[in-house]
Amino acid sequence: MTYAVEPAAVPDPLRDVLVASYGWAHFHAFTRLLASEEGIELSRMWNYGGHIPWTSTDTPLRPFFDIDCFEDGRLPADKCDGMRSRLREVLGLWSRGIYAGDADDGMKVDQSITLRSLLAVIDACVETGRSLLLR
User: Fold this and answer.
1) Where would a tag sit more exposed on the chain, N or C end, judged by fewer CB atoms within 10 A?
2) The organism sits in which domain of life (predicted)?
3) Residue 82 and residue 122: Cα distance in Å, rounded?
4) 31-42 pLDDT, tens digit each
5) If residue 22 lies in a helix (H) or strand (E), which one and from where to where?
6) What is the pLDDT of residues 114-123, one digit of tens each?
7) How far is residue 86's CA from residue 94's CA, in Å, rounded to a whole number?
8) Is the pTM of this model over 0.85?
9) What is the pLDDT of residues 45-60, one digit of tens each?
10) Which three-class secondary structure state does DSSP give residue 5?
11) Contacts of 101 (CB under 8 A, 6+ apart)
């Protein structure tokens, strides 16, 4: 799973190369840890084995759990802006070793590092008005 900045019409060597990539195990751990920060029990949610629709949740981080938010693999920059402050709060917690969810220590450190990369991608999307791509 890779999150990237939508390429610019005119090449932008600083932002066009920004990515945050997850292998499947790391992506699974990321979504579990992030959901815990939002008080969401993933196993009860649609597409995670449960029946509760994502429309019933109130979190700016919904696009990370509900890929239907990405239309044709794209999330508009204005929706990225809504996620930024919450992701910064989560990164602040994780950087201090404070996690609402469970994972082994090595995975938690990896998630904190990757969240930093993801935040750089989202910042670039908001600053340039370009979409966040999901590949």
Assistant:
1) C
2) Bacteria
3) 10
4) 999 999 999 999
5) none
6) 999 999 999 9
7) 12
8) yes
9) 999 999 999 999 999 9
10) strand
11) 32, 33, 34, 35, 36, 37
Helix, strand, coil share (%) of the chain residues, nearest 5: 50, 10, 40
Beta bridge partner(s), residue 108? none
Strand (E) positions, the chain? Answer: 2-5, 19-21, 74-75, 132-134
Cβ neighbors of 40 (< 8 A, separation 6 or more) are 57, 59, 65
Q: DSSP string spanning 41-77?
A: -GGGBTTTTS-B-GGG---TTGGGT-GGGSBTTEE-H
Q: How far apart are CA 73 and CA 67, in angstroms?
A: 8
CB atoms within 10 A of CB 60: 16
67, 134 Cβ separation under 8 angstroms: yes
- Locate 50 and state its tokens: 């449960």
**pLDDT score, position 70:** 96
The contacts of residue 52 (CB under 8 Å, 6+ apart) are 44, 45, 46
pLDDT in tens, 58-81: 999 999 999 999 999 999 999 999
